[in-house]
Amino acid sequence: MKLYILAACGLLLSGCATITRGTNDTWSVNTTPVGAAVKTSNQFACDSTPCTFKMPRKSEFDVTISKAGYKSWTGHVTHHVAGAGGAGMAGNVLVGGIIGAGVDVSSGAMLDLVPNPLNVTLEQDAAPEQHAAK
Questions:
Q1: What does the CA dihedral 84, 112, 29, 60 come to, rounded to 10 degrees?
Q2: How far apart are CA 88 and CA 101, in angstroms?
Q3: Distances, alpha carbon 98 to alpha carbons 21, 53, 101, 104, in Å
Q4: Residue 111 CA from chain centroid, whole number
Q5: Distance CA 116, CA 89 (A)
Q6: CB under 8 Å, gap of 24 or more: what pairs does 95-100 form?
Q7: What is the rounded distance in angstroms from the CA atom of residue 76 to the CA atom of residue 69?
Q8: pLDDT for 74-120, tens place per residue?
Q9: What DSSP element (H or E) covers 39?
Q10: Domain map of the chain by residue range?
């Protein structure tokens, strides 16, 4: 009997990713050197890294990082099923049924943004060529 109670508690704790994980993820950007500007295609921005944003887990977006004296960097952020999200989904299927599973899928609660954190080392711009006077 105790085994059944422990199993039921385990399923309840692992269930429903929407409740246990939420629909937003904290996404961070770090650059070397610090102090770069960040702009995303989904309208998030910050003036100086490091930056942290609260983003919907279902997001996919492009990010541009720029700093005076350095080449701009552009990349793509996507999402994948997280280990904790998959466990929550599995628990939900067993405990919450198909409706709970559908909520987790549509809300994106079982997803994580990748890469997260985004770590970028910026390359310096080439120094302007010095022309000798003739």
A1: 180
A2: 9
A3: 18, 32, 5, 10
A4: 9
A5: 21
A6: 95/11, 95/12, 95/15, 95/16, 96/15, 96/16, 100/15, 100/16, 100/18
A7: 23
A8: 999 998 887 654 444 455 555 555 545 555 555 667 788 999 999 99
A9: strand 37-40
A10: 17-121
Write out the two tokens for 89: 């989904």
CA–CA distance, 24 with 101 (Å, rounded to integer)? 17
34 contact partners, CB below 8 Å, separation of at least 6: 48, 49, 50
Cα gap 103→91, rounded to integer Å: 13
Q: Report pLDDT digits (tens) over 9-51.
A: 444 444 455 455 678 899 999 999 999 999 999 999 999 999 9
Architecture of domain 17-121: Sandwich (2.60)
Q: Is the pTM of this model over 0.85?
A: no
**Of 26, 29, 55, which Cα lies nearest the Cα of 42?**
55
What is the Cα–Cα distance from 1 to 38, expressed in whole angstroms? 56
